[in-house]
Amino acid sequence: MTIAMDLPASRKKLAKTVNRVEKNSFTFSIFLGVVISFILLFSVAGSHAFLITVQQEVDSLQSRITEEMGNSQELRIEVAELKNPERIRAAAEGRLNMLQPPIRKQIQPVSGLPTPPDNPFRR
Amino acid sequence: MFGTRKKVKRKPLSAPLKSFFRRALFVGMVMVLISGGLVWRLVYFQILDSERYIAHGVSQRMKTEKVFAQRGSILDRYGVDLAVSVPRRSLVADSRLVEDPVLTAKALIQIIGGDLEELEEKLSSGKQFVYVARQVEDRFVDAVLSLKLSGIYTLKEQSRVRPDGDSVLAIIGRTDIDGNGISGLEKSHDEYLSGANGLKIVERGPRGSTIPGGEYSLEAAENGETVISTLDRSLQFEAEKILISGVDKAEAKGGLLVAMRPSNGEILASVAVERNADGVTRQISEHRSATWTFEPGSIIKPLTFSAVLDAGVASMNSVRKVADEIHVHDSDFSDWFDHDESDWSVSEILYRSSNVGTILWAQEIGPSLLHNKLQKFGIGRRSELDFPGEANGILLPVEKWSGTSLPTIAIGQGVSVTPVQMLTAYATLANRGVKPAPTLVRGMGDNVDMLENPVNAQPERVINSQTAESLVEIIETVVSSGTGRNAQVPGYRVAGKTGTAWKPQLGGYGEEREDRRYVVSFAGFFPVEEPEIVALVVVDEPSASADSGGKAAAPIFADFAKFAARQLRIPSENEKIDPSSSERVLAVTPAQAELFSSISSAVLSEEIAGSIVE
Asked: What per-residue confidence (pLDDT) applies to A108?
């Protein structure tokens, strides 16, 4: 009789325990799900923010490339202007007080001169 | 057993509670209606009229942008920029957004200048897009933007810049404000220079930043190719200075100088100048070497004699009696100097530039042979240069020749040529009979390498090499001791011919000497043994004191040739290692000579190192 009475009690306890565990794991699953969802959402938001930042960098790089290409063209013009013979002559005659030779003289080597070795001016 | 449900008598609601429930019901219904309304709008936006709103959203996000191709540069033969495109900003307006057109126009005019009324009109036009000012300097654009005027924006464009100013403008040409070539090489090579614009489709956020992961497609722009011209900027610059000085000395109306490498027809320099009413001589923006024509005068005589010699009717030593005047058809032709009737060989006739002698030999070959030969030299038809606006010159077909055509054309009157045609004819003599195709372009490529060569016409043999050699010998004596003495270049063998032509005027060439106007010229090349440069100098209407090619044009040729010899490092007779070699030894200092002597164990003294000659 005692045993008979005990069995249902332990079963009840077991059932209660099982119920509790089931309930807890369900709660845990929901909790876990929520946490994972949050993490996923945050990572999606984070990666999106990262993408936007990178895209902004790409945009700014592209505009810099365009700008630098323009600067490079401007510098080409400046180089060409600096190389302009007219500017060089004006600088030589004006700033450096150089004078055109009144007569141009030509050096005339006599024949028999040996070929200079590795002469950079040799044609 | 089962009890029946007892009827519970509900207590009647109190009045305030009833009122609360009624209000709650009303609020609930309102909420339901609002929710219903919202749901309906949602259904309307998302399902019923979704297409329109999708399209509206797309139009806000999707941007189609033109990617501008950069116009290719034009370089000189050594890679120096002659024309480059640079980005510039233009000021534009959405006139619908301009708050006060009058005030805005006044503010803009103070910075960018221009016509106030015109700008006011533009800003009040109601148009979505109007140009305020195009390709403005950055400082002005920044000043305008700092005013934060409503409806005023900037637009990026390309502007064409020539770093050398106008010194090569005549050849390079111009582009219009939209970057299309309208003259010169800019026009003739527009298809290479212009490139192709690209297209970018991109999704952008409200601030203009690209939406990552959004739609993106890019059709890249193809930048224009670089055109590498045959010009040598230093030669061009010096040619301009020398020509201006020469034209001033001759007190002429204008002049031109064009130089070519005879071996390949590459034009190295081409300048035309003109004196304005104030007496100031300036370069002009027209490429007269190709677009202007003139009667060449005596410089055509070597061409006439090439026909005579090639026809085999005479050799250089063939002699005939030459008086100083001859009557042909209804006209008298005379030599430029008085002389008794003399027995002159072909060489002497050419050396003395005798009109009568030239006419006599031209009569021996007749009109057809002369016409054909001149045509073969390229006279009377556009050259292979294919320059925009290039002239044909005039060489009438034989059927239209009158009785005086043969004698006049044989001495360079009654025929008109472009300077490039005449230059090419002399390049043919320099090449010993092979006519090169004149060109202004070496090739197309990027800024580093030449990738593409233009398809040039093939050189063509026009006269027999022996004939050419004989003619070169004679015109060398013209420079060494004849009318072209002023064209001598120390250390170099120069060949050339002077020309003094009457300039056509209304009703003829002028009856009396004082009524006549002249075009004087010198065409020549050097070094004779292996010509590197052929040049033509033409001086238009020089003063009476300089009314011959020898006086006005030959000195200009000599000055230019001296510079070109240094610039292109053309070895002089004395600088050559040996006469058969094109290798050269530049003059050396005594110290260098000592060094060489120690290397070669040869005894070299200061005397050997070099002596100075003027």
From this structure: 55
Token pair 């902004």 in the structure block, residue: A56
Regarding whether B509 and B396 lie in a shared domain, the answer is yes
Query: Whole-angstrom Cα distance, residue A7 to residue B150?
Result: 90
Residue B5 lies in a domain: no
The pTM of this model reads 0.79
Q: Do B163 and A81 touch (CB under 8 A)?
A: yes
Paired strand residues for B345: B319
Report yes or no on B383 lying in a domain: yes
A-to-B residue pairs, Cβ atoms closer than 8 angstroms: 128
- Would you say the C-alpha torsion B244, B524, B401, B360 has a positive or negative sign? positive
Question: What does the alpha-carbon distance between residue B5 and residue B456 come to, in Å, rounded to a whole number?
Answer: 116
pLDDT tens, residue by residue, B544-562:
888 889 999 999 999 999 9
Using alpha carbons, select from B473, B518, B464, B519 the residue that is nearest to residue B496.
Answer: B473
> Which residue among B229, B261, B285 closes a domain?
B229
Cα–Cα distance for residue pair B57/B210, rounded to 1 Å = 15
Q: Are residue B179 and residue B248 in the same domain, yes or no?
A: no
Mean pLDDT of B119-129: 89
What is the reported pLDDT for B139?
Answer: 86
Residue B174 shares a structural domain with residue B264:
no
Write down the domain spans for chain A: 9-95
Q: How close, in Å, is residue B574 to chain A by CA atoms? A: 6
Domain finish residue from B211, B229, B247:
B229
Does B556 lie in the same domain as B529? Answer: yes
Contact B152, B104 (CB under 8 A): yes
Q: How far apart are CA B123 and CA B121, in angstroms?
A: 6
State the pLDDT at residue B275: 92
Residue ranges making up the domain that contains B212: 65-229
**What residues contact B452, with CB distance under 8 A and at least 6 apart?**
B225, B443, B444, B445
Task: Please report, for the domain that includes residue B154, its CATH number.
Answer: 3.90.1310.10
**CATH number of B539's domain:** 3.40.710.10
Residues B321 and B455 in one domain: yes
Question: Which of B82, B157, B574, B611 to mutate: most A Cβ within 10 Å?
Answer: B574
Which pLDDT score, from 0 to 100, does residue B166 have? 81
* C-beta atoms of A70 and B611 within 8 A: no
Asked whether B428 and B434 are in contact (CB, 8 A), the reply is: yes
Quick check: B531 pLDDT over 70?
yes
**Whether the predicted pLDDT of B539 surpasses 80:** yes
Asked if residue B449 and residue B510 are part of one domain, the reply reads yes
Average pLDDT on A61-81 reads 89
What is the ipTM for the molecules in this complex? Answer: 0.71
